[in-house]
Input
Amino acid sequence: MLRHMAQPQDIVIVGGGLTGPALALALAQAGQSVTIIDSLPQTVRKNAGFDGRSYALALASVRLLSGIGIWDSVAENAQPMLEIKVTDGRAGEGAAPFFLHFDHAEIEEGPMGHMLEDRYLRRAFLDAMKVHPAITQVTDTVVAQEADAKGVRLALASGKTLDARLLIGSDGRTSGTAQRAGISRTGWQYGQTALVAAIEHELPHHGIAHQFFMPPGPLAILPLPGNVSSIVWSETAETAARFAALSDAEFMEVLRPRFGDFLGDISLRGKRYTYPLGLSLANSFVAERVALIGDAAHGLHPIAGQGLNAGLRDVGALAQVISDATRRGEDFAAPDVLARYQQWRRFDTTTLALTTDLTNRLFSNDNPFLRFARDLGMGAINKMPALRRGFIREAAGLTGDLPDLMKG
Output
C-alpha cells in the first residue's frame, strides 16, 4: 500500500510533452490545482534547437491555444496554411491529372490552420506553466499507482509519493499510466516509417501545403516561415531504413525526384529523423480515477496531420467535463463524470483512426484499379464546391461536437 501525502492535489498529469501542459493550463485557469510530472528535465525540453519537427495546427487547435494563453507568444513564428493540394502519382512522373485543392478563402473563418515548429510550442508551454501559481512541475518518473474510490496514489522513482483526486495519462503510445490502470490497447504496425526533415527551397511556398500520395506512402510538404518546408515522407520500413542510412547529399538525391522542382532548388536544413508508423488505440480512455489524453489514448497515422489536433480536442473536452462537474458540485473524478469524457471523445477518435487507416491503405499501393478510382474520386470532389467546403472545414477542425475552448 502506498503512503498518502498529507496534502493531496486536485489533479496529477503524467507526461510533459504537449497535451499534458495544454491540459494543465486549461485546468489551472478553471481553478484546479495541477501537478505535472515529466521524466525529462525542463532544460532539455526548453533548449531544443531547430530540428525540423513541426505541427499542422488546425484552426480549432489555434483557438484552444489562444484560449489558454499560448498563441500570442508563438504566433509570430507560425506559418498560416492558406491552401492544401492533394495529388497522386509516382516518384519522378509528376502528379496525376486529378487532384484536390482546398483554399481557405472558401470558408469565412480565415486560414485552415498554421504550421508551428515543435521548439516554439514547447518553450511557450514551459514558460506559461512556470509562472502559473496553480501548476507544480515535477521532474520524476512514476513507478507505481493505486486507485480507489477516494483518489489515486503515485510512487515516484525518487521515493516520493503523490496523492491526487484524478490521474491523467499524457505519456504517449506506451503509456505507463494506462498499463498500470489495466487498460489494454488495440493496434498494428503499417510496415512504414516516416522520414522527417526540414527543406530549404529557392522559391516561396505561398503558404500552400502539399500531400503527394505515392505507392509506398505519402509525402507531405508543409510550409514553415520563410522559404522552408517540413517534410513527412512515409516509405516502407525497409526502404526508409536504407534512405536514413544515406549521407545528407545522397538523401537529397533520392528525395528530389519525389519532391519535384516546383519550389526550385532544394537543400536539407538541420537533422533528419525517422519514426515507425502504426495505429494504437486504448481500449478505454478512462479507468477508476484515471483518464487518458493524446497519444496515450490514440496514436494515429500522420497521413492527415491530425495527431496533435485530436489530442488538443481531448484537452478541451476533458477540461470542460471537469469544469462543468465542479460547477455542479460533483466529484469530477467519479466514474459517471469520466464516462462523459469517454463518450465525447472515444467514438470520434476511433472514427478518425479508422479513416486515416483506410486512407493510407487506399493510397499506399500501386493497384491500377484503385489508383484510377481514387483519382476520379478526387477529381469529382474537387468539382463539387459544397463537398469541398465540407472537407476544408474538416481540415480546419470545425466539424463535430467542439469543446468551448475550440469555438469561435
In short: Residues 335-363 form the longest helix (29 residues).
